[in-house]
Design goal:
By secondary structure, this protein is an alpha+beta fold. It has two domains: 103 residues, Diaminopimelate Epimerase, Chain A, domain 1 (Roll), CATH 3.10.310.10; 101 residues, Diaminopimelate Epimerase, Chain A, domain 1 (Roll), CATH 3.10.310. It is built from four helices and 14 strands. It holds the Pfam family PhzC-PhzF.
Length: 225
């Protein structure tokens, strides 16, 4: 098995929670897409990143079942790990900056996979949502027919504080995403304002719309191993 790092991205203030990410720093050891896909499936993380050029920030992102042109928490994590000014993905070039305890990326919401952004009336309603087993043809759920759903509610609308949970709708053993940067991009674009999002059990994401249709997403990153 190839050597890889494990990061935790979008950690809470105490360094806990966040979404795990595998990073293969020497992507050249596994150059073929089929190899990479099989390796990502074997590891079982929500995403695995292969670094093809660490100086230029060229990366390749996989879930256990498919290749992604862009994903939020992998880019935030790899940007922190490589400490480069930008990342090059199939979707486009992503700006990266480090600011104190936060790692930030600047990306476009249209790069994110489509999903349903479903608003609820309170944070308590978000907390009470059941985890639904994914799969095509699944019976109706509280969200309607199954698919990528980002359930959110205001905790404090004036302060931009949001409570959210993400249900990816993938039949690969990942029923709920603890922290989803791509969904945060979409929500920020829809609302047109900076957000402080607590997702999952206790992960934290900060966002801010930028000129020209760009959105910044930031969070804490920790090296697990």
């Amino acid at each position: 098995m190839s050597n890889y790092d494990v990061l935790r991205v979008f950690c809470g203030p105490g360094g806990g929670y966040g979404n795990e990410l595998a990073v293969v720093r020497e992507g050249s050891v596994m150059p073929e897409r089929e190899e990479r896909q099989a390796f990502a499936a074997k590891l079982g993380f929500s995403e695995t990143v292969f670094v093809d050029d660490p100086e230029r920030g060229v990366i390749d992102i996989y879930t256990p079942t498919l290749r992604l042109p862009f994903a939020g928490h992998p880019c935030v994590g790899v940007g922190w790990l490589l400490d480069v000014p930008e990342l090059v993905t199939p979707a486009g070039v992503i700006g990266v900056r480090l600011d104190g305890e936060f790692s930030w990326i600047e990306a476009r919401a249209e790069w994110a996979p489509p999903r349903t952004l479903r608003q609820y009336g309170s944070a308590a309603e978000i907390d009470a949502l059941p985890v639904q087993a994914p799969g095509v043809g699944a019976p109706p759920t509280p969200f309607g027919q199954w698919g990528r759903v980002y359930a959110w509610a205001w905790e404090d609308e004036a302060a931009g504080r949001v409570r959210a949970r993400a249900f990816p709708g993938r039949d690969d053993g990942i029923d709920e995403d603890e922290a989803t940067g791509a969904a945060a991009l979409l929500l920020t674009q829809q609302l047109g304002r900076a957000l402080n999002i607590v997702q999952g059990v206790g992960s934290q994401m900060l966002t801010a719309p930028q000129p020209g249709g760009w959105v910044e997403v930031g969070g804490r990153v920790r090296l697990e191993r």
